[in-house]
Amino acid sequence: MLCIGLLVCPICTIAAIYLTHSHWDHIADARELKHETNAPLFIHPDDEYRLEEPMSHTIWQLPFTIESVTADYYLHHGDQIRCGEWNFSVCHTPGHTEGGVCFIDKLHSVAIVGDSLFAGSVGRTDLPGGNTDVLIESIANHLLTLPDNIVFFAGHGEISTIGDERMFNPFLLGINTL
Ligand SMILES: [Zn+2]
User: Fold this and answer.
1) Would you say residue 89 lies in a domain?
2) From the CA of 110, how far away is ligand 1's center (Å)?
3) Number of structural domains, the chain?
4) pLDDT for 123-178, tens place per residue?
5) 109 C-alpha to center of ligand 1: Å?
6) pTM as predicted
7) How many whole angstroms from 126 Cα to the centroid of ligand 1?
8) What values do phi and psi take at 162, rounded to 5?
9) Can you give the residue range of the structural domain that contains 110?
């Protein structure tokens, strides 16, 4: 959910920083963003450990350093995040990482799914903490059970809908939902 870079809107106030998970490409600017905005940072407790030592938890030789950042609060399954008209439910969807979460607003038919689900694909599970069976179970139980018209924004790639992924995503064909 975290944007890379610090293009802070001059007419908006960033009140909180919610992380879908703690892979380096989703937390690289978290420390700076938190410092610039004084906004509290939220993450699921199972993904907190990468915040503390980000460089030791990436398998790549990055040409820059990612500094540690401290979580202020934890996200738990079922928590509610209210932001103006928006009311997102926190949904724990492990598999891509242990503490990956999605943010779902059924009233507005919108979900923010991090790297759990992509248009035409699913999150990779070959990195430490990943588990293919767990990810597919998370998607089946928590995302494919949503209405078809839910539009979702993933951490990478195109915007899609739950209905399109249910119909056409090759990784999800034949999955029975609850
Ligand atoms: Zn990731």
Assistant:
1) yes
2) 20
3) 1
4) 999 999 999 999 999 999 999 999 999 999 999 999 999 999 999 999 998 886 65
5) 23
6) 0.90
7) 11
8) -60, -40
9) 17-168
